[in-house]
What does this fold into?
Amino acid sequence: MSHRFLTALLGTAFLAGCSASGRLLSLIETSPEGPKRLQAVEQLGQRSYAGPQEEKVVAALSAATRDGDEQVRLKALETLGKLHTKAARATLVSALNGRDFQEAALREYDTALKLGGDSPEVLLGMARIQTDLDKLDDARRSLLDAGKLVETMDSYQAGRYLSDLKYGLDNLRMKYEPKGDRDAADKLLPEIAKWTAKVEEMEKQRGGAGGLGGMPYPMVQ
It folds into this structure.
């Protein structure tokens, strides 16, 4: 077998491999059928990749870890583990740590806000994820906006959010301090004191009512 023929043969095989992986990537991204996406993810793990092709495959598998089908998500994690590349390992660790899922959830919260869903639940959920992702200034804005909404509510409605607000602010302050941002941490103290007082008053009133569930939660003015 001549060197030229062998080179041509290897080149043809490489192009065929790229074409096959391209079809699999397209299935993962566009197929509305879960079983087809699952099969495509599995077959990606049966090949090896390098360079730009590896980047495309790892990106597609990363997206598949957020697929609406649980079986596809699990298979994507398994396939990332089979690739044994630095990029695949980093993506797998990120997915297992939940960062990719948190980023996706944050985008959903942001969409809800843009559609007019500026409720305390949305803002507090955003703040939790933003804090975990070290987007601390964004978390601060979300918590302060949630607090403003809660202050417009009656005592019963507001009581549902007091503890979450206090916890969120406390947690955020603890995240600021190790980063050396003492000024940002200290600016939270008045808000923490305000919501701590409201929580304490709520607990006192509930205790005074005999600890009965369903009693209104008073707000400290």
Notes: Residues 198 and 220 are 5 Å apart (CA to CA). The radius of gyration is 25 Å. Confidence is low (pLDDT under 50) at residues 1-17, 209-221.
